[in-house]
User: What shape does this take?
Amino acid sequence: MSTPAKEFLHSAAVKSADLAHRSTIRTGIDHYEAAVMRTGARFLDWEAAREQCRAVKWEAVNHLDKYLLEFESRVQDRGGHVFWAETAADARRYISELAARKDVRTVVKSKSMVSEEIDLRQDLEKQGVKVFETDLGELIVQLRDEPPYHLMTPAMHLTRTEIADLFREKYGGVESNDPQHLVDIARRALRDAFFSAEMGITGANFLVADSGMVALTTNEGNGRLGSSLPRIHVVVTGIEKVIPRMQDLAVLWPTLARSAVGQSIACYNTLIGGPRNAKEADGPEEFHVVLLDNGRSELLADAEQREVLHCIRCGACLNVCPVFRKIGGHSYGTVYGGPIGSVLMPHLGGLNKFQHLSFASSLCGACTEACPVKIDLHHHLLQNRRNAVESAERPFGERLAFKLWRWMMMAPKRFAVLGGAARAGLRAVHALGLEGTRLDPLRPWTKTHAPPAIPAESFRSQWRKIATK
Amino acid sequence: MARVLERIGYAIDFPEAQTCCGQPGFNSGYWREARALAERFVGVFRDADFVVCPSGSCTTMVRVFYKELLEGAAREAATNLSSRVFEFSEFLVKVAKITDVGANFPHRVTYHDACHALRELHLRDEPRELLRHVKNLELVEMPYSEECCGFGGTFSTKFPMISAAMGETKAANAGAANVEYVTSTDPSCLMHIDGILRSRKSAVRTIHLASILAQSELSDGNTSPAVTKNSP
Assistant: This one.
C-alpha cells in the first residue's frame, strides 16, 4: 500500500540523485542568499528586528481571540463580511456558494497558500468557474498542472528555458527566453482575465486588528489589481495572520521582504479595509474575509509548539534547508514543504500520516537560524519525533533497537564487551573481503559510503595502557 | 585530545563508568530511554571540574537538550553540571585561554562547521583560531562550510539517499578548496564525510581537530590512524 511516507521516500531518493535539479536550486538559492546579504546590511540590527517581529506575533497569537474579534468588528463596520471557517470544507463551501449565488464565471486569484491548503481552485473549477492564477510563478505551475514547489517561489525548480517552452506550448508567440519577454506574454494573457473576472481571491499577509485592514504584499501588483477590479473580493487566510496594530507593519513588512526574496521592501504593499464606499471611485462592491482554522486552534492549545503559529510564510527556512535543497519542494507531498511544513503538517494533517517528515531532517538548525520570527523549528521537529514515539506507529524493530541500546549503555561492561564483539565481527567481515557486500552488517551504511576502518582496540583499552604507564 | 590537555597542564581522568550521553535516543524520539542515560551521565561526571568532549554534538546534548529532556531534581543537577561541560576547542580557547598548543601539521586543511558546534554552541572562530596557530598548517575555507554534511545520526540510515546527497555536496566543496584534509570538531560528521570521500575515490582525507592539535612539533606530521566513531 502506498502511504505518504513511502511516496516521500521514493520521491526524495529520486530527486536527491537528480543533479540537474540540484544545480537549478543551487543557482536560485545563491541569488537569494546574495540578495538577503545585501538587504541584511540595511538593517541596523537584524537580530533586534527578529526579536521585535517575534514579540508582535507572540502578542497576537497569545491574544488571538481578542485581536480577531477586533478585526472582525472593524471590517463589519465598513460593510465587509467575515466568515469563520472551522474546516477546509467550510471555507470551500462558503466561497463556492458565494460564487454560485453571484453568478461568478471567472475568478482571478493572487497567491495564497491557504487557498492551496483547502484546494480552492480545484473546487471552483469543478463547478465550472474559470480560475486564473495571476502570480507569475503560480500561473506557471497552474499551466503545468502541478502544485507550487515552494511556498514563496512556486516555480523555483524551473529554468527560464523550461518556462519559455511552456509558454510556447500554451500561448505561442515566444521569441526568446528573455525574462522580460516572458513576463510580457504572461501579462497579456492575464489582462483579459482581470477585466472579465467577477471575483478576485487573495490571501493576506497580515490582518491588522486595530484598523480592520487586510495587508497584502506582492511584487507584481496582481494582488492590487485582483482585489480592486472584480466586483467581489474574497480574502482567504488563516486565523494566525492577525497582528495587533498598524504600526507593527513597520517592522514586519521589511522583515518579510528580506526573508522572502532579499528585498528591502516589496514592490506592492496594499491595505484593504472593505468594499468600495460612496466616496470612492473604484474597489469591489462586496468584500468577504474567510478566516480558516483547520487545526490551528489545536496548535494554539499546544503550549510547547504554539509559536509555530508565528510563521509569516516567508519561505526562508526552505531556502536554507540542505534537505530541501536536495529533495525539492514536491517530494514533501504536502501544501507546506521544508522545515516549517515538517513541523506544521503533523498538526494540520495528522501525526501518524506526516510524522516521517519530522524524521527526515539532519537537525542542522539552519532553519531556526534563518527564521525571521525566531521559531525554534528544529527543536519542534524533535518534539514531533518524541510525540510520534509516544503516540503514533513506529516500526517494531526500531522500538526494540532503542530498548537494547538503553540496556547496553546502562552498563559500561556490556558496552565494552558488545563493542569488542562488534569490532571483532567487523574485522572478520573485512578479513573475508565481504565489506560493502550484502553480507556486511553495515550494509545500510556501505550502500552509500566506503566501509569504515575498524579500530584495533577501543579508547577504553588504549586509555588503560596509558594510565597504567 | 587527552594528550593535548595534558601537554598544557591539565590532569585527565577518564571515568570508565561512562557510556553514552543519550543523544541517539533523544534525537530519534525515544526520550524515555535517553532520560535514563542522561541521568546516568550526570551521575558519572558530577564531581569533575570540567568535562571536555571531542564533539560539539555530545556537548550540545548535555548543555542544551538535557534541559528539555529532564525534569525536577535531575534537571537541576544537569544544569549545574552543564556549565562545566565544554567542547574541546571551546575549552581550549575560552577556558584554558590558549590558542597555540604547540602543534605542527604541514598540510592544507579546511574546516567543516559541525552544525551543533556552530548553531547550538556558537563556535565559529574557536576551532579556526586553533588551526591558524598550528605550525606549517595552511587553513583554507571551503565554499558553504556552514552547510550540513548530512550525517544527522539515524537520519543517515533512515534516509540514506538524502544524507549521501548532502555528503556529496560537502565532499565536492572540500574538493573545490583543493585541500589534503577536512577537519572538524565532530567525529560523526567526519566519519560520514570520510565514507563519502573514499567511496568517490577522492584524495581528500578527514582528521579530527584534536588529532591535528596532538601532532607535536617534534613529530614528522604523519597523522594518527583514521578517526572513527569508537576512538574519539
Residues 160-176 of chain B form the longest helix (17 residues). Residues 34 and 51 of chain B are 19 Å apart (CA to CA).
